[in-house]
């Protein structure tokens, strides 16, 4: 059984979405940030950074959402939700996955850190225009790379699409504009998958059960 450590409306959704896509059973262990769970000795033993998501499988803990999503796709759906390792198709998949994590998400996380995540004395309000400019620049490159394809790799939905769509939704929650028509229709297409809805429900249920 896979145990997922997470909290709703975080990067954990990338992991639960992938697991729902795969149809793999899992346990959801809520790490309630509002109650300080992320800094508890028990959770810091899982992830010393005090961040979610993390997963435990066969006694081994793994964290970082991109690594987890890639691992799950390789383990349970290699060649379907992720191209086979060592192929050029896999290189393109990894290219866009790493682009999301290092270019598209990075300015959003900069905004998040300087809004709420880091101590107030370290927040710099002047960073927001630069972060917005960086995000829009990365967004334009993503739009160019997607072109008129339904998914980032072409006709087939992949793990990279989970990372991309989640990050685009994060951008909208941060009131960042997405003006490219191909990205608007792409986001609607990817988020309409049943697995996305099921992942939302699972996370919401976990929070409700804790009360």
TrEMBL record:
Under the heading InterPro entries, the entry gives: Glutathione-S-Trfase_C-like, Glutathione-S-Trfase_C_sf, Glutathione_S-Trfase, Glutathione_S-Trfase_N, Thioredoxin-like_sf
Limits of the GST N-terminal domain: 1-80
Where the record annotates domain GST C-terminal, the positions are 86-210
Q: Which CDD domains match?
A: GST_C_8, GST_N_GTT1_like
Classification via Pfam families: GST_C_2, GST_N
User: Where do transmembrane segments lie in this chain?
Assistant: none
Q: What is this protein called?
A: Glutathione S-transferase family protein
Organism encoding this protein: Litoribrevibacter euphylliae
């Amino acid at each position: 059984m896979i145990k997922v450590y997470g909290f709703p409306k975080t990067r954990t959704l990338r992991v639960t979405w992938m697991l729902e896509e795969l149809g793999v059973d899992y346990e959801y262990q809520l790490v309630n940030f509002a109650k300080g769970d992320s800094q508890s000795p028990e959770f810091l033993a899982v992830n010393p950074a005090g961040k979610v998501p993390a997963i435990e499988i066969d006694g081994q803990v793994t964290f970082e959402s991109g690594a987890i999503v890639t691992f799950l796709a390789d383990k349970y759906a290699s060649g379907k939700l992720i191209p086979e390792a060592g192929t050029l198709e896999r290189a393109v998949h990894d290219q866009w996955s790493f682009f999301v994590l290092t270019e598209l998400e990075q300015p959003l996380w900069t905004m998040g850190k300087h809004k709420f995540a880091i101590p107030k004395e370290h927040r710099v309000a002047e960073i927001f225009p630069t972060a917005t400019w960086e995000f829009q620049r990365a967004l334009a490159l993503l739009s160019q790379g997607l072109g008129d394809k339904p998914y980032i790799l072409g006709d087939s939905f992949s793990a990279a699409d989970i990372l991309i769509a989640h990050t685009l939704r994060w951008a909208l929650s941060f009131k960042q504009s997405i003006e490219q028509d191909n990205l608007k229709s792409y986001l609607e297409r990817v988020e309409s998958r049943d697995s996305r809805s099921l992942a939302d429900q699972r996370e919401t249920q976990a929070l409700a059960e804790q009360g």
